[in-house]
Amino acid sequence: MNHNQIFDRLWSDYILQNPSAGKIFELFTREGEVVLNDHIAFRTFNDPRLDISVLARIFLQNGFIEKGEYVFEEKHLFARHYEHVSDPKAPRVFISQLILEDFSPYLQKIIREAINAVPEETCLSDELIFAGSLFPKPSYDVYNKLREESEYAAWLYVFGFRANHFTVSINALEKYDTIEKVNEFIKAGGFPLNSSGGEIKGTKEELLRQSSTLADRVNISFVEGEFQIPACYYEFAQRYADKDGQLYSGFIAKSADKIFESTNFTSK
Ligand code: NI
Description:
Blueprint: H1 3-17, H2 19-30, E1 37-45, H3 52-60, E2 64-72, E3 77-84, E4 92-98, H4 105-116, H5 120-124, H6 140-149, H7 151-159, E5 165-169, H8 179-188, E6 208-212, E7 217-222, E8 225-230, E9 233-239, H9 253-259
Parallel strand pairs: 1-4, 5-9
Antiparallel strand pairs: 1-5, 2-3, 3-4, 6-9, 7-8
Bound molecules: nickel (II) ion.
């Protein structure tokens, strides 16, 4: 499996789970645009059995190297991003992990028990990033209790290991070459954007501006029955050159804090 095959496989699963992303991709393609991914993102917990370093392994084995590190204080997350050494078209890989020790004994217990149910071979296998949920069948009651402390934890408890979002590189688009044009195009296509903290997160001065759709709602089979909850979202990123003329390649903790809210249950 090379890195392109990894991304193709993640994309197939992602658009199956999140049909809006597939439709938006089609809209761009119909306009003659070639859609490149700025980055894709994964979520995990800081438990050493499946933390960032475990999820990153398959990328490190396929030409990626570690780049930036980020702390999201408000959301109690730590993140790293990775870039391919030689393929400039390969998306950056952004992996964040929830700092379990910052949460209640209840949340920690639920999550540790869920992780205990994951076979060690799965964590060590290349299949981990494609595995989806590896945890026991979720409870809707537990999902809602987790949400009170962390929407991120609740999302991960249900959806597990998969791309949480893909991100269209606005810099690679021809006609829709600003985030304002992209946002108008997406909304005109009938897809609502996440407006928490304003539709555009980040500024030109910070060298990165991003927006995102609200996550599609999908039916999930819980212990208590079927319920609709938000799945994944699609993101759009416009990058700017720094004073040396180099396109900024990192992420900004402050604006990403708000982007994480695209999968919130109540964001609609
Ligand atoms: Ni992102």
